[in-house]
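Priority: medium. Attachment 1 of 2:
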């Protein structure tokens, strides 16, 4: 389960998506996330599905590798679907005890599962095709106008980059600790919910200790190298737009316009 998390990991490949400017991919990801909550019918769903399928194909990332990340959110998907299924008023299809399943609830539950699934896949696609350094540079460049109102853009983007970089490291550390605890007889599966929560303490305590130790080591290393970010700092690989980036902007604008058009009741 721990190794199934794909958000924050980078998958090296020679694809068009990997070569795009990170600012283009950030804008495309934002438009894609917004579009997930705009469609209300089958036509809009088809447009979003085709857009995601096209991006997965262009990325050259194995679809089976991307789908692994969905296993970590199965519980969230199930809970969201159940809430939509039983708490949405409308035309009753099935009723038992005090619970009712309505036609509108069934439709909302299906759309909610699709939206959350596509959200994880799209977010994973951004990090799988963009290195943490590229994400940091892209975010800092895109948010640079906020520096005029004294927003610490560099510090914010640096924190986000470090967080993304530490996700796979912490997942690997969690996997090692869990295997060590299982070898010592720990049981993380059986028992009641309270017992399962208590059994997680031998896992969480060393994980937090390891995370704080890594953070302290990183802070000391940056301080020892006299690291100073922000204004006046140059880039070894400055971002530069190419023709493919302009075409990508046009493609994203066309996709978003299509979703907005299909959002209407035809």
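Attachment 2 of 2:
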């Amino acid at each position: 389960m721990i190794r199934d998390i794909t958000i924050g990991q980078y998958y090296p490949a020679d694809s068009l998506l990997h070569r795009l400017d990170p600012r283009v991919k950030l804008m495309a990801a934002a438009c894609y996330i917004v579009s997930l909550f705009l469609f209300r019918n089958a036509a809009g769903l088809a447009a979003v599905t085709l857009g995601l399928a096209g991006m997965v194909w262009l990325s050259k990332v194995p679809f089976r590798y991307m789908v692994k990340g969905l296993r970590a959110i199965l519980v969230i998907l199930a809970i969201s679907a159940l809430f939509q299924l039983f708490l949405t008023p409308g035309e009753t299809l099935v009723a038992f005890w005090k619970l009712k399943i309505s036609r509108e609830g069934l439709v909302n539950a299906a759309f909610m599962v699709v939206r959350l699934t596509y959200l994880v896949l799209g977010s994973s696609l951004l990090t799988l095709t963009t290195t943490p350094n590229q994400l940091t540079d892209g975010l800092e460049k895109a948010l640079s106008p906020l520096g005029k109102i004294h927003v610490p853009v560099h510090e914010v983007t640096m924190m986000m980059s470090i967080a993304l970089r530490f996700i796979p490291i912490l997942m690997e550390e969690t996997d090692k600790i869990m295997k060590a605890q299982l070898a010592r007889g720990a049981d993380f599966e059986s028992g009641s919910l309270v017992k399962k929560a208590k059994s997680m303490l031998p896992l969480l305590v060393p994980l937090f200790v390891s995370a704080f130790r890594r953070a302290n080591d990183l802070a000391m290393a940056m301080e020892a190298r006299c690291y100073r970010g922000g204004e006046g700092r140059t880039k070894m690989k400055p971002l530069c737009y190419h023709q493919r980036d302009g075409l990508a902007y046009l493609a994203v604008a066309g996709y978003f316009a299509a979703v907005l058009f299909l959002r209407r009741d035809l």
